[in-house]
Design goal:
The complex is a heterodimer of chains A (about 450) and B (about 280).
Chain A: E1 3-10, H1 16-27, E2 42-49, E3 53-60, H2 63-77, H3 80-83, E4 91-94, H4 96-106, H5 118-132, H6 138-157, H7 167-179, E5 186-190, H8 194-205, E6 210-214, H9 218-228, E7 231-233, H10 238-241, E8 247-250, H11 261-268, E9 276-280, E10 297-301, H12 302-309, H13 317-340, H14 343-368, H15 374-402, H16 408-418, H17 422-426, H18 430-437, H19 440-453
Parallel strand pairs in A: 5-6, 5-8, 6-7, 8-9, 9-10
Antiparallel strand pairs in A: 1-3, 1-4, 2-3
Helix pairs in contact in A: 4-6, 4-13, 5-6, 6-13, 7-8, 7-12, 13-19, 14-15
Chain B: H1 2-25, H2 29-57, H3 65-87, H4 93-109, H5 124-159, H6 172-202, H7 215-236, H8 241-265, H9 271-274
Helix pairs in contact in B: 1-2, 1-4, 2-3, 3-4, 3-5, 5-6, 5-8, 6-7, 6-8, 7-8
The chains are: A alpha/beta (about 450), B mainly alpha (about 280).
Chain lengths: ~450, ~280
């Protein structure tokens, strides 16, 4: 039996410092996807790391051992002070729970800012990396494709995306509490990620007219600058322009803070102590946390912004509930597919498909030759049945033989793809599904699915 | 008659304070305007009372600590009413109105010895000296309120812990501007008031010397220095925000010591007229 496990930490379970440390460790010494060959208990692996979460999605046959192995690997690469209590920051989901969690993540229901659009892109990148390293196979492949379609469905069928009050919106609100009017304030964007773009749009909407962009790759900076009618600033000049700026938005991927306490402290006199507001949406953080201690300097990182967002979360609750509903539905569908990965349902589906084709073709022929007698009709019936049976004999034998092997999933999946069975199985009638599987588990889920459909 | 007016004024201030405290908790415009109107009514009764008293005495009615404090409360409320029209910072009322009530009650507790009529009080110099200084003090009281608000709001933003008042308090920049406005208006007034005092003191009819180490003079000078430093640092180095807010609070405490502490606990030239 194959299990899907999701192990990770997010903004709710771990403070930013721990996530930073893990994200940094994964970036430098430990490239999780390349470690797969060393993880004997883990079959498939996907690694997702964003500002708000670090997650490992894997399949295995022995759950306990696989989890132990992955945590041991993480512990080995984290600094010693964290190691002792690192488990308390992790959550572990198995099978259906893991699928639901992944769907929720992709649909941005588990985000710090529910409905923020970046997460889907980040998940797609993670998936691309995994396919490049060939660490995803049948199950995760299918799961991820399903995940993307679920996310798309949630986005199009609910307003979760449109009523998303993003981190940047929260930051803009804070800026208004510090500065009052924003139209004469100058904004510096450091790093040009999706998040920075979103924030810049919000600031422009709030009347900011003066904007500057600094990015390590000039090309991207120029692109953004054109879009926001901003000027570009060389990345190594950011410290010099600090004295003219009022709001600084950082979102670079730098592993080290790029703005340090001393850099800013020494420039406050030059700016005649005018307030300076740092919005740090990068993980690892771009601005040293101590900067917040300087007079007239305010620093908010993404964890801090959560507090502000909490204020208007209620509005989106209803839309989130609708999204949860979609996810519950899709999770069950995926579970049905998982069930079909066994040999028997595939054989049944194969036979059913062949039988349907045989019948419809026979029907077509018979309807043209109306003069045929009962005897001839029967002969044709027997003939077609024999052809189908002989044609299917070898593939079925092959499936049955492979049924015992480890490569079973591959073979089953290939057969399903060759004969295009997956669509059929997705759309399997609920009752026939119960019949073919017969297990209580599927019955339960069928009932659930029915109740949802009602 | 005056005492009836005074009671009415105090009542108005109390109702206005309650109104403004409700406004502090709930953003509801009508209650702001109602409170503002009630404060205005209170100020009119208060002014009438002081005017009647002054006419009775044939001099400005600031001859006892009680009257002085009452006059100061009037100046405070009037200044707020005017500033409100000019700067539109409604929430300031929630801080100023309680202060006015406090001063009104305090003034009724203070001794009210009445010094003999006439003498050095009957002079335009005194009226100018007292009104400018009280007006300056009222502005400093507003700066003090804005300073307290600034510190409250800044604390919430710095600590990332948003309490109930976060939504209601204005932006930091705004509060700092109010502080600056009060300082730049109040300081010249204070300077003018002090110079008039020195000039009048050195005239032959009074003490024949501008400076006589009177406790009130010393504390007034300290207060003046605090505000001078605050203004100087603002203009040269760009002191603002938290430091400026603390200076406004410190300055106003000095004002209170000069005004009340010296009157009540120390003896000096000025004591003659107000004890």
């Amino acid at each position: 039996m194959c299990h899907i496990i999701l192990l990770g930490m997010n903004h709710k379970t771990a403070p930013v410092a721990i996530r930073e440390q893990l994200a940094a460790a994964c970036k430098q010494e430990l490239e999780p996807l390349r470690m797969l060959p060393h993880l004997e208990y883990v079959d498939e692996l996907l690694f997702l790391s964003t500002c708000n979460r670090v997650e490992f999605l894997f399949t295995c046959t022995q759950v306990h051992e696989a989890i132990q192995q992955v945590t041991a690997l993480l512990k080995a690469h984290l600094g010693s002070p964290v190691t002792s209590h690192v488990e308390s920051y992790f959550y572990v989901y198995q099978n259906l729970e893991a699928v639901t969690h992944l769907f929720r993540v992709a649909a941005s229901l588990d985000s710090m800012v529910v409905g923020e659009p970046q997460i889907l892109g980040q998940l797609k990148t993670a998936y691309r990396d995994a396919t490049e390293c060939r660490t995803v196979k049948v199950i995760l492949n299918r799961l991820l494709h399903k995940t993307f379609s679920v996310a798309k469905r949630v986005r199009s069928e609910t307003c979760i995306g449109s009523c998303a009050v993003s981190i940047s919106y929260a930051a803009v609100e804070l800026a208004r509490k510090i500065f009052g009017e924003l139209d004469d304030k100058k904004v510096l964007l450091i790093g040009a990620g999706e998040m920075a773009e979103l924030a810049a749009e919000h600031l422009l909407a709030q009347g900011v007219r003066n904007m500057a962009v600094a990015n390590r790759t000039l090309e991207r900076a120029v692109q953004l600058a054109q879009r926001f009618k901003a000027e570009t600033i060389r990345f190594d000049h950011i410290h010099d322009v600090l004295k003219e700026m009022d709001i600084v938005l950082t979102s670079t991927g730098s592993p080290e803070p790029i703005l340090k306490y001393q850099d800013i402290k020494s420039r406050m006199r030059q700016r005649r102590n005018r307030p300076l507001f740092f919005i740090d949406i990068a993980v690892p953080r771009d601005v040293e946390p101590r900067v917040n201690e300087i007079d007239n300097v305010y620093l908010y990182d993404i964890d801090d912004l959560q507090g502000v967002i909490e204020l208007n979360r209620e509005e989106r609750k209803r839309e989130a509930e609708r999204a949860e509903h979609i996810i519950a539905e899709e999770t069950l569908r995926f579970q049905e597919w998982l069930g079909t990965l066994d040999v028997v349902p595939t054989i049944i589906a194969l036979r059913e498909k062949a039988e349907t084709i045989r019948r419809s073709e026979l029907q077509k022929t018979l309807s043209r030759f109306t003069h045929l007698g009962e005897k001839e009709r029967l002969a044709l019936e027997t003939l077609t049945q024999a052809i189908v049976k002989k044609m299917l004999h070898d593939p079925i034998l092959f499936l049955k033989k492979k049924g015992e092997r480890k490569s079973r999933q591959f073979c089953v999946d290939y057969v399903q793809q060759i004969f295009n069975l997956s669509d059929r199985m997705d759309g399997l009638d609920i009752d026939s599904c119960t019949l073919t599987h017969g297990s209580t588990n599927v019955k339960d889920s069928t009932n659930l699915l029915k109740s949802i459909k009602k | 008659m005056e005492s009836v007016f005074l009671v009415i004024a105090t009542l108005c201030y109390c109702i206005g304070t309650v109104g403004y405290l409700i406004y502090l908790l709930r953003d509801w415009t009508p209650i702001h305007w109602a409170s503002w109107g009630i404060l205005l009514g209170g100020a009119l009764f208060h002014a009438a009372a002081i005017l009647l008293r002054s006419m009775e005495l044939h001099q400005l009615a600031v001859t006892s600590s009680q009257e002085a404090l009452s006059f100061f409360a009037l100046m405070l409320v009037t200044t707020y009413l005017v500033i409100q029209i000019r700067l539109q910072l409604r929430i300031l009322g929630s801080f100023v109105a309680p202060l006015a009530v406090l001063f009104m009650f305090l003034s009724s507790l203070l001794p009210a010895h009445i010094i003999p009529k006439g003498g050095i009080f009957q002079s335009g110099w005194v009226i100018f000296h007292v009104t400018t200084l009280f007006f300056a003090n009222a502005l400093f009281a507003l700066a003090f309120s804005a300073g307290v608000m600034y510190l409250l709001q800044e604390r919430q933003i710095k600590r990332k812990n948003f309490g109930y008042l976060y939504e209601r308090l204005p932006s930091l920049e705004r509060l700092d501007k109010i502080n600056y406005y009060c300082l730049t208006t109040g300081f010249p007034l204070m300077t003018a008031g002090l110079i008039t005092g020195f000039a009048y003191a050195s005239s032959s009819t009074v003490w024949r010397s501008p400076w006589s180490w009177d406790p009130k003079e010393i504390f007034a000078l300290i207060t003046w220095i605090i505000y001078a430093v605050s203004l100087h640092e603002r203009l040269t180095v760009g002191w603002r925000g938290r430091k400026a807010a603390w200076m406004a609070i410190l300055g106003f405490l000095a004002v209170l010591i000069t005004f009340l502490g010296v009157n009540l606990f120390l003896k000096g030239h000025h004591t003659t007229f107000i004890r």
